[in-house]
Amino acid sequence: MFLALAHEFAEVAATLRQGAGEGRQVAAARVAQLYGRLENVFRASLTSFERKQYVSLSSEPNKAMNLNSYIGLMGGSYSVHQTLAGKVLVADDPEHATFVVPNPDYVLTLDADSTLLPEYCLRLVYLLEQEEYRHVAIAQTPYSAYPGAASRLERIAGATTDIQHIVHQGLANYRAGFWVGANAVIRKRALDSLEEVSWEGGYPVKRYIRDRTAIEDTESSVDIAAKGWEIYNYPERLSYSATPPDFGALCIQRRRWADGGLLVVPKLWRYYKQAKQAGRQSFAEFYLRMNYLASISWTTLALLVLLVFPFANELVSPWIAVLAVPYFFAMSTDLKYAGYRRRDVIAIYGFNLILVVVNLAGTVSSIGQAVTGARATFARTPKIRRRTVTPMLFVVAPYALVALAGYTLVHDWEHHAVNSILFAAVNLVAAVFAIVAFIGLRASVQDIWIQILPWFRKRRRVVHEPTRVQIGVPAEDLGAWEHVLDLGTSAAVATAVAPRVQVRSRSEGRPERGARQQSLDAYGLETLSQPIYDIEAGRIVGYELYQRINGEAPPVELARLGIDDALHLERHLLERAGSAVQHLPPDAWVSVNLSALALRDVTKRRPRLALRDGVFFDVSVGAQRGFVDGLAQDVLSYATSRLALSLDDVVPDAPTLVVVRRVRPRMIKLDPNWIHDLPSSDAKQAQTQVLMRIAGESTILVAEGVEDEEELEVLRRLGVRFAEGYLLGPPRQLDELGDHLQR
């Protein structure tokens, strides 16, 4: 299969030898062409890119953000700057940039375990270049299993994959095709039409491919269709992908495939209604897409009902089995066409029986994500030499199924329930065969023993004592320090508050204050005040103070500032906040944005501002997981006990709720992107209420970025009393605050 190119080169070589033996001559241009082809085939330029090296890119643990991060950089030139938080990519002139990413016409996506035939790109790009395919966003060949499987499991799992190859061809025929993420050639212009920009930790994050579910390609397919693009499945096998070699790895893969389909159904319904109004939607397309998204869920639940629920004999008709004959006949025909045997349909039935609980786990995970609003973590299929241990539930469930089928068979025999005996007997035989052939009796015992053995081992109690841990790179190893003002990632927070970070004294070469102030003024420094509004009372109760550099949020703009300048800048903000307090009523709040580094500085210097009631110190948490662990114990203790600590950019997912429970802040500020999604998401509304219950009545909850009446109405209904945003009051220059209050 993959030696076709080698055979072609061998034929060319033999032909040239034959021509030379006959005294023939080959034109110089033809010789150059042949050598050029050899050079193009065997010459490779390899580069690597790891997004998690850069704090300015998303660190979400899923495959979609791997693609989004690099696609978002395409067409740009950047310089890599080492800051206190880590490496930051800053846009730069192409002549001076250290990292340049071209802007291509097409993007090839490829999984690590997939292989393409040599003519893959040539054929698909040629197709996309044709005028009649200008509306096609993605051209692909749904992958096939490698032929010559080494085990029964790989062979039958590969058979289900090859059947899906045929199914995808049929879906595309009705404009209901789905992107299969293992490989594809994607039109860059189509990706640009899907671009959405959000802010994480003060940095812009571009999303082209949705990362809400573990099946990012499936959800993005609906987005592509909604933009008027189509997906084309090339009618030939040009790509192959590895099948998991053992049952444990297969469970991880199939659970991921079953997770997320239900979450996409509401988006599909919205697309169907919009497309129907525009006159470009057919019921066949909607039905096929709906079946593709939700069939795993409803077929799994239906099969469980048939297996578990007791039916009276008179309610079960032998004609029910006849209804299944066309389905199995069609499947056996597809198997025969794909190079398998017709009788493999029986093995596939048993294979699907032992995967019932795996598919059910994916369905339950989808429902859990719908309720909590959390994003799925991408579970990569293991690539190891040894066998992957199967989770106990997935090992025990097939045996429980055999026991249930055996009990049903005996019960029906005793009660002469002839009609249901056949169904129980088929399930019993198929499940036993699948356990022996695909899981293995010995492997089952090993997996169960490995997982129950720790239950009988005595665990030593580990006492965790507060420690001061150095996190990050020592100052002497970095050379020139650089700093990002609003540290937004967990790495940034952890590094910024490292106890051993030393600030240089003036005697060590620190510039004079006047010189530093001049350098900061060159950045266009300004301090803004955003009013905090009491929704219930209808009045302003305080102000949030924050810095802007040339009108932009600090992190990207201040990437070139050293730690001394950055810390001085934040001290300057505290000084201005102290001056602003004199103009405010005694009961007015002042909320000051600080980095975790500046928070540590406050615990040391303890300025007068920290002693005034109603002053809150905002530290950005965002979606960071290591916020609490990154803070030194003395900083955290002082900040929570002596300061009015405020957590900024909060997204109330499960890890952040744990942070809230541990820190017990005086104020919590909800992320603007979360607020924008509240009107259309019942799940996020429920999560917001959970956050309010965990935080308690003593914690002030503020919604940031309120921009329309619909968002405000939802906040009222949820009981969120305080908010800020352009709808309630635009930000003002801090110098104008006193005059504004007098007016």
How would you describe this protein?
- By secondary structure, the protein is of the alpha/beta class.
- 50% of the residues lie in helices and 14% in strands.
- It is built from 29 helices and 21 strands.
- The strands form five sheets. An eight-stranded mixed β-barrel has the order 13-14-15-16-17-18-19-20, surrounded by four helices. The chain has a four-stranded mixed sheet with strand order 4-8-6-11, sandwiched between helices. Strands 2-1-3 form a three-stranded antiparallel sheet, with no helix packed on it.
- Helix 5 crosses helix 12, helix 7 runs parallel beside helix 9 (261-278) and helix 10 (283-308) crosses helix 13 (356-372).
- The longest helix has 26 residues, at 283-308.
- The chain is globular, with a radius of gyration of 31 Å.
- The termini are far apart.
Descriptive key words:
four-stranded mixed beta sheet, eight-stranded mixed barrel, 14% strand, alpha/beta, 29 helices, single chain, 743 residues, 21 strands
Quote the average pLDDT.
Answer: 79
End-to-end Cα distance? 81 Å
Going across the major beta sheet, what is the strand order? 13-14-15-16-17-18-19-20
Instruction: Tell me the radius of gyration.
Output: 31 Å
Chain oligomer state: single chain
| Class derived from helix and strand content | alpha/beta
